[in-house]
Amino acid sequence: MNGIIIDNISKQYKNVKALDDVSLTFEEGKIYGLLGRNGAGKSTLIKAISNRIFVDSGKITVDGDDNVENEVALGKMHVMSEVEMYDLPERVSSYFKIMKDFNSEFDVDYAKAMAEKFKLPLNKKMKELSTGYKSIFKFISALASNCKYIFLDEPVLGLDANHRELAYRMIIEHYSETGCAIVISTHLIEEIANLLEEIIVIKNGKVIVKKDKEELLKEGYSVSGSSTNITEYIKGKNIISTQTMGGLMWCCITGEMPKEAVANIEFSRLDLQQLFIKLTSEEGDA
Amino acid sequence: MNINFDNDIPIFQQVADLLSESILAEAFVEEGQIPSITELSITLKINPATALKGINILVDDGIVYKRRGLGMFVAKGGCEKLIQKRKDAFFANYAKPLIDEAKRLNIGKDDLIKMIQGGK
Fold it and tell me: pLDDT (tens digit, 9 = 90+) per residue, A192-209?
C-alpha cells in the first residue's frame, strides 16, 4: 500500500484529547493543506506520523510499513517543524554536510542554490541566524531532503513577504520536479490557498474536513441583501453564519451556489480562509 | 506575470481566461508555444493540477493542443475559435447581467438602448 496511511489514531494528554480517532491518507503527487486553529492537534498529528510521540491507539503505515521505530519508514519523510534543534555553534554550511551524513539522498548543491536565492549566510553560525533565516534554513533542508513525504509545519514563520513568495515558488518547483507529497500546515491560509489541492481541517483533535479544495469551495456560498429578502431566501437552507448591519444582511449557506440570479440578492463564492473561519469558529470569537 | 485572482471565479477558469486573453492579444501566436504547466504554476503560484485543469479547458475547445515531448501549442484556427467562444460568453457574461440589472433598476428597454448608444 503506497502512501502514509493513518488508521484510527488517538492520543490523550492528561485530560485533553489531542487526537481523536483520526484517519487520513497522504499520497505522492499531491499538495495537502493541514489546517486547524491553535491547539487543534496539527503538530501532535505530525509528531505522531514522524514517530516523535507514541499514539494511544490506532496505527500509521508508510508504504505499508509500520512507522514505529522503523528507519525505512521514517527515512521516507522529512518533517520541518517549529522545534528549535539547531542551537549549536557550527556554521550553516556544515549542517548541510551533517544532513548528507544522515540522509544520503540529501542534495547539498540544491540546498546551496536555494540558500543563495534567499541570501542565507552560509558562513554564519547557526545560533546567530535571525528567526526568519532559521525558518529558511529548515525550509531549505526539507526540500533538499528529497524525501517522498515532506511535512512543512509553519514553513514561512518569520519570513518577510518577498521571501514567502520565493518559498511558495520553490515549493511548486520542487513538487513539479519530484511529484512528492507535500503537507503544509499554516495559519496563513489566504497566501497558500492556491497551492493546495486537498484540504484537511482539524478541530479539537478530530478531522472535520478532508476534501479536494475545489469541491470544498463548491459546498458553500454567501448571499447578501436586505434583511427582508435574505431572511426569506435562507428559509429552509442550511446556514453557517449570519451577520447584520442595519437593514443589511450577509449569510453563508452550505450547498452549491445557484446558477440563476435571484433579484435583489448578491451571490458570491466563499474563499478558503472564510470557509475555514466559519468551520472552526467557537463562541466568543466575534 | 502577475494576476490578481478574483474570488468569485474558480482559479482554473481564470488560468484558461488568462491564456485566452494572451492568445487574443497575440502574445501567443497560432502554432506558437504556450508556457508549460510548471512555468504557469510557478509564476502564478498555483497548484500544477489547477494549471493543468485550466489548460485542458483550451485543449477541449480545440484552441490549444499538445505535441508529445515538446509542450503545448496554439492550434491553427485557434484564435478564431476563441473569438466565437468569447462572443457566446459575451452574451452570457455581459449582455445578460446588463439586462438583469436593468430590470432590477426598472430601466426600460428603450432607455437601456439609449444608454448603450451613449445618450441618457
Answer: 999 999 999 999 999 999
